[in-house]
Amino acid sequence: MRFTSILAVAATAVITVTALQYSAPATADAFADAEDAVKYRQSAFSLIRENFGHMAGMVRGEIEFDAESFQKRAEALKHLSYIPFDGFSGAGHGVTENSDALPSIWENWGDFSEKSEAFNKAAHELATASQSGDLRSIRPKFMATARTCQQCHEGYRAD
Ligand code: HEC
User: Fold this and answer.
1) Structure pTM?
2) Distances (CA, A) of 128 to 46, 70, 115
């Protein structure tokens, strides 16, 4: 065996051991069961709400606008915008007693995915706009992002 391939084998072994230490479920699915997935997606949405709500307060003038704080929240939202959606596939496929997700999600998966992508895109644009520190250019991007939340909740979340 050449030295380089010995190194490659050694590196693979390290990666395997590290991965095993963190992977509790024995399957490829990241969630142990449906409740686990529901908890995951709801927790992600509550982090989204926390950050979005703070930005909403500044956009509406209820909280004094602070460009740095707004930018931090917008940056967090950008990253969080992907997180809940892993919790809708695999074990999270379907509705549980503790979930407000509607069955229409899985009947219209393509549309639901498009709506989640529209949200990702809007959150990215909001984060970019927030770098200007100018509320006049931030406001329309904030409103556009808010619409993507609403457009998905309308058909896919119970009130
Ligand atoms: C592509 C669809 C989609 C988008 C976009 C979306 N949501 Fe949701 N949201 C859902 C669904 C579905 C649920 C219900 C999840 C459940 O209970 O299983 C939910 C739940 C929530 C909850 C309740 C969480 C809890 O604790 O039960 C909040 C708060 C929330 N969303 C806020 C937002 C905000 C704010 C945005 C935009 C910034 C947003 N969502 C964008 C689909 C979406």
Assistant:
1) 0.86
2) 23, 11, 20
